[in-house]
What we know:
This is Protein NO VEIN C-terminal domain-containing protein. Residues 1122-1211 form the Protein NO VEIN C-terminal domain. This protein is 36% helix and 17% strand. The longest helix has 23 residues, at 107-129. Strands 1, 2, 3, 4, 5, 6, 7 and 8 form an eight-stranded mixed β-sheet that branches. A seven-stranded mixed β-sheet has the order 39-40-47-46-44-43-42, with helices on both faces. The model is unreliable at 277-286, 320-326, 645-654, 926-960, 964-1047, 1056-1063, 1065-1098 and 1236-1242 (pLDDT under 50). The chain is α/β, with parallel strands linked by helices. It starts with 8 loop residues before the first strand and ends in a 12-residue tail after the last strand.
Amino acid sequence: MLSDSFIVMKKEVLGGGIVNVSVGKEKMSWLVVSHRLQANGIRPDVQSTEISVAFTLQESCDGNYIPNLEHQPVFAFLPLRTYGLKFILQGDFILPSSREEVTGDSPWNQWLLSEFPSLFVGALKSFHGLSCFKEKPGKAVSTFMSFVPLVGEVHGFFASLPRMIISKLRMANCLLLEGDSNELVPPCKVLRNWTEEVRSLLPDSLLHEHLGLGFLNKDIVLSDTLAEALGIEEYGPKILLHVVSSLSRRKSGLRSMGLGWLSSWLNAIYLTCAHSPRKASQNVATEPDFVDNLRKIPFIPLSDGKYGSLDEGTIWLHSDALSTSFDNESGPEAFPKLYGKLRIVNPVLFNAAPAVNSSINDECLVENITRMLYLVGVQRLSAHDILKVHILPAISDESNIVAHKDLMTEYLSFAMLHLQSSCSNCCMEREYLISELRTKALILTNYGHKRPSEVSIHFNEDFGNPINVKTLIDGIDVKWHEVDFSYLKHPITKSVSGAVLKWRNFFHELGVTDFVQVVQTEKRVKDIPHLFNSMMWDMDMISSGTIAKDWESQELVHLLSKFTSRIDQERCKYLLEFFDKLWDDNYSNKITGYCNISSTGELKTFKSSFISILHDIRWIASSMDDELHFPKEVFHNCEAVCSILGATAPYAVPKVFKVFLKWSDGSNSGLLSSEDIEYLKECLSKVEFVVLPTALDKWVSLHPSFGLVCWCDDEALRKEFKHFENIDFLYFGELGDEEKETLRTKVSVFMQRLGIPALSEVVAREAIYYGPADCSFKTSLVNWALPYAQRYLHNVYPDKYSELKQSGFENLSRLRIVVVEKLFYRNVIKRADIASKKRFESNCLSQGNILYVTRESDTHSIFMEISGFFLNGTSELHMANFLHMITTMAESGSTEEQTEFFILNSQKVPKLPEDEAIWSLSSVPSSPWDDETLLTSYASALTDEPDPQMSKRKPCPTSNWPPVNWKSAPGFSFSRTNGLRSQATGSVQMRKGNDEENFVAQTNVMTPIEKTSPGFSFAGADELGQMRNGSNSEEYNALTNPTVEINADWTIEDDLAATMPAMVLQDCETAEYRPERVVLNPVDVGAGSNGTKSSSSNYSERDQLSIGTSNPEQAIITGRLGELVAFKYFTGKVGETSVKWVNESKETGLPYDIVIGDKKMGREYIEVKATKYARKDWFIISAREWQFAVEKGEYYSIARVVLLANNKARVTIYKNPAKLCQLRQLQLAVVMPQQQEFAVVA
């Protein structure tokens, strides 16, 4: 929309290219610079054209111009748009029809663009011509430079213009130098960011002469980015370095400047590095080798008047505080050659007057100079640094050996003296210094300078060696290196007290020894041949790549090879004497190596290579012959040994056994009286009679100071305890089988009289348990079995029974049963107060008067411990089998008459006399917390129990044992009439799946069933069938026949379609026949939601499930035969090597009967449940079996074996029965007792 308003603009052209434009009260100024160009045929229609640049200025109050740096547009006679430029460009640019952009591909436009940099640079003269800058030309340059575009600020067609302008400026004389000359120079010839102190330190003439630079006019202010783009030098460490580098290259350059100037220069370069982090980092960061370059320049004044660099060698700084740390012993007077080799900073440097007047005080100036010298690598002059920095490198230089022999002696003397001082730095670095000296130092010996790391070096008599090695090595080809005497001639030996001892201690740390050198090495276990024979632990615990720390002596091996090859008894005697003198102080700690087992982190020990060499080579001379012997073959010829063995006794360890055998025969024949044996025992018990050899090559007596001394009758226990220090095993040499038997049966009796016990006699088991549990059931079991144990002991061990009776059955009165959740034990030797680190899991353990058992403890294990309890700790297998069979019969439902018949006729154990009181426990605790001993640790003392109640005939039955007679259980008649088919109380659909397969196999079962207890065997398969329960039946008598075997061919088939799901009964061990107990893992076996029975039920309905009391022997035979059939079944499936029948030899009591697979590939556990009745749809499972089934899950199966007529059998596999119960494909039931009290709840 047009309006009637208008704007009045006034243009005024002033002199010097200034153009003012007024718009109302506003006024704008431009400095316009133009140049006419000849077209030169680029555009035929144009002869010439003009380009212009306009700089926007703003007039200040004082009449000066200041730059206006806002972005300005580009003009093609009319404004186009801005491109990021801070000035206006005007040119006859070719434009597109839209006039929005300069055409980029136009040669004309490209030509115009290339002409603008020259026009822009030429505009500097116009700025100089402005009247406001006449007196201050630096301001004109600063204003002009503020318009210079930087790379990245301009875009579009003009993006390359900043680079072209800066390129022109770098070659132009566009910057002013400081001073009155107003000289214009290129940017590369000026130095910016200087101060008056810098100009005083680096005068114009010095700066121009050495670097060709001048100081930038102080009125010129440039941005860091622009200055860097123009190539302007920045004052900083690099400039100072270049100055001093140039001075050092000129003859007398630094010397002409004086030490005062040099001190000012060091102060300045330190301040630029330390106090100007931003600027210094810019300079130093672009010069990563700044310090290295400075180290190459010989700018450091030395005390001898020269200038040196750190690349030429170490330079030392001598400060006032440092000078007092040197005493006369380690000063220049004691070590003139050493100090003559040191280059020290000229101390005048710190006292010279600075060349620059600075506000910094003298103290700070000295501190800054010192820090700068330290920064470039000058070392503080201290005894510790002289040793570390100067001596360590020089003492290993073999070129010094010939030219500076005395200097090498001074080096080592200085090192010895300093390391004996109280230097604080040595506390932290002593180990490093000694290691470096041991590895690199050249020590003067009788064979020249040698390194202790390369050859064995020894002390001679001058250094206090207590042995005369010449008697050992004279006449043989051995190089024996000894420290030269020249070290003892050094002046410090006289000035320092105890110098010889200090020299000896110093050389000893470097590896110098009196005799053969033994060094510690690290090797792989497989590279130590003797290790596998001397290990004190199971080698399966480590791998052959494990690293072991060993001790070895190549020098000893060399000497022994020389002596033994010539059977040189004299030198071997000297060798033994030398070891005798030096052993305790030098070699006793090198007989054991160490190996770290990575899997456990435990440090294990073994016999070192050093001691093995002494053990395994014949090098000991004997008075008996002219041969050399192993050390084990000879006794120590001393008064103590001779007083016992006699002068004519054979001094050889393998004869020790014969000595004991001779004593034993003398004791048996009467040649040795009781007084003689007591005297012998008294002598062996004295501390000085160390005449008994041990397995670890140690000689001991029976004195208590040597710990426990015993003989080994159990190799496993020996391995377990052989690494303990407080126990030793007698060594009898290598014995044959006959000698071993003589030792066990004959010599051991005599050793017992001397007080030397067998290892197994002193080892006891110590119980470790967690979580006390209900002990009523296990206590009831033991209480029930005690009368039978009493009958057995009375019949089989009448002497032991009589002994127990005479004591008033005291041990029985103290017997207590403790049931725990977890049970372990460790072997201990109380006499030696040592305990094994190994812990063994157990389910039954008798310790003292307490019988520890777990819930999972089987009866056979319990009875094994009971037998040991009555027989002085020695378990009696026959007694345990006897009690276990009776218990099995009771569990199977045998009557008392049947059990008694079996005991009298099969086991031949008569009844007790009428006057014998029947054994029973004093009490049966109802809760695990009723027994206060469970609240204490396993090591606590236990309170004695009162005497047991001794009834005249029978022990009173408990509520938990023996099991209820299942023959009289309610519903038994129903089961009998229905073929032992149980009544179902719910509905479960059988699972059909891949767990079952159709397989019929013909097998020849010819393996006889072995006896599990004395005097009892199983009946043959052809005699299985319905058997009478009466105790007088012929079938029962046949069962007790010890000669019957199983010998039949069986046809075994898979049961693919089991029509009757099984009901699993929880046995009495868990249910305990308590009325309040309910079904374990219950499933919904009741009515449906509408109150009706589920139609999908496959279980037969019944109100009661009764268990009859079958013949116990028949039940055992059925179970045993079922296991055999199952074993053959699985063997046919996966092969005999993959199947293990755990009860093949005897009943183990494990919660499974068969194991398939191995530990590596995985194991599956099979529990066999056998029956002769095809319609029987239930079986009994113990609490332990069920718990194991839950734990193993998919790896636990129940094999239901049905023994049919005509030697046929059907096998049904229930995989993961716990899961099948959850899926309602099996049921778990609890059978109630026949009689129980009922409570009515209102």
